[in-house]
Structure formats: C-alpha cells, structure tokens
Amino acid sequence: MKKIDAHLHLVKSVAGLNGRGRLTPLGDGKAIWDDGTLIKLIPDGWGSDNFLAESALKVMKENGIEKSVLLQGSLNGYQNYYSYQTVKKYPDKFIAAFSVDPFADNAMRIVKRHVEDLGFRAIKFEISQGGGLHGYHHPFRLDISLEVGKILHFISDYPGFVVTVDYGDYTQFSYEPEAIANLAMRYPKLDFVVCHLSFPNADHLDRLENALEQWKPFNNISTEISAIQDIEGETEFPFPRCQKDVALAKKILGAKRIFWGTDSPWSSTFNSYHDLSTWLQATDIFTKSELEDVFYNNAERIYFKPEHIKAMRESVDPVMA
C-alpha cells in the first residue's frame, strides 16, 4: 500500500526555540533546553546532531514510504531553506511547508520570499503554548490576529494554499479549534490542516467531538493523526487509545478528511517508525480503500497539488542565483 508521511521534520541544524528557551544538541540524538530539560530528539542510527534528507530517504525506503511532507516546528527550529533545498534535490520524494513568526518585524518579507521566490504553497503555524509561538508571545487568536491576518490575506491569492496548524492541547491558551472553523469559512479557497487530531484524549472524547463537529461543515478542513501516540502516552501496539480517537474522527469527518503522518524524528524515539507506519493496518477502523485514502490519497490531494509541485520545481532563488 502506497504511503505518504504527511508530517516529517528534517533537522540540518538544531535550532529549537520555545518557552523552555533555546535547544542545544549534545550528540547521540540528545539535546538540552536552556531550562535544563533533556530530551532524546533523534532516534539511534538516524543522526547524532541532525536528521538529513538522505537519512530520511533511507527510513522511508525501509518502511515502504513513497513520499513525505516536510513541516517546520519550534522543537527542531525552522528548517525552511534546507527543506527548500531538499525538495529541489528530490522533487519526486518531498514537498514542504515553511514557517514564520508572524510577529517578526520582517514577517511579510519572509512570507513573500518563500511564496513568490521559492515557490512554497504551504505554511505551518505551530502556535502551541507547550512547544510553539504561545510559549514566548502573549496569547493571540489565529482568526483575529492582525499579524496572522496579513499573511492569510496574502496567501489567499493562491487558491489551494495549505495552512497547517498545531495549536496544542486544551490546557493551553493556544487551543482554538473554533478559530480553524472561522478561518475555513472566511477563506474557502484555502486548505486547512489541523495537526495531531486536535490533541485527543481517549478518556474525554466529548472534547474531541466538539472540535470535529465544528469542522464538519467545512470541506476545506482536514486533520492528520501524527504523534497521537505521544499525546496519549501509548507505547503498546496497535495503540488502543489512539484507535478510539481515530474511529471518532472517521465517524464525524469521514475517511477522506483524515490522513496519516508520524511527526518523526522525535515521535520515533517513543515508538518505532515501523510501528507508527503500520498500526492502522492492524485495526479495523478503515476499509482497504479508506486506508488508501488515509495513507496516501488525502495527503496527495492536499499537499501535492500539481500546480504546487510546479511552483517549487520551477522556482529559482534570486539570492543564490
């Protein structure tokens, strides 16, 4: 069965920044935050202080993954330009989103460069308080922020542009599933993707249901199910708590608005990439044809639009030309 890992991170240079401060690599896949928190960032054998495209391709080949979507996040630090270089080098294997701090003085200059010059057609907002922008900015709303609004107004000139959002869990200021519904209504020609199935908790499915029901009327909202094993604290294959979460999502949104990803490399330090890439096949949540959608067709439709692939392939960076 063909698969696209729709949530993968490359790490050329560890540059993490969140509420814990800066992240410093220590070798052997380990890193330390400024507040003293020690983490295992990269699985053994994948890289000591980095996770490069060639390592990713090796992991993908070993696990039968045809393509991957490269996303950015505050954990690793934005790897925008390396992701661009990777897509240019391996255009049949990767597509990428970029990230920007909307409160930076040159935010719009950064956005325009990535869209107009480099050909990106997806943007990732990691706004979570636990790991993203809310950890080092005052609380803000995606649907009323003037800074975010400027970015969305600009990319609305590119139909099918993908806006991917990680807003953390319900305990955080950043948790705002209703903002996604509001934005989907205002920007019907954009595609919105919510990461990590809105941070589910199998003991509180009513909360997840509330979020999903808000998105149900809007066909331009999808959700991916990466890292829900980490979120649920599960290491027992095939992850029974995650099965409850995904079954509910299918019931409300249907199989064509859910797709698979891993959030590796970090998530593969908790569960093996093999288990993360096969667990759905060990359940009866989806039929075979639905699995083909969840594993491949949905991400292909949303991220790998032909005009988006063309934009990145034909782009020429004027700075480096």
TrEMBL record:
Keywords: Lyase. This is Amidohydrolase. The lineage of its organism: Bacteria, Bacillati, Bacillota, Bacilli, Lactobacillales. GO terms for molecular function: carboxy-lyase activity; hydrolase activity. SUPFAM superfamilies: Metallo-dependent hydrolases. Residues 4-304 form the Amidohydrolase-related domain. It comes from Xylocopilactobacillus apicola.
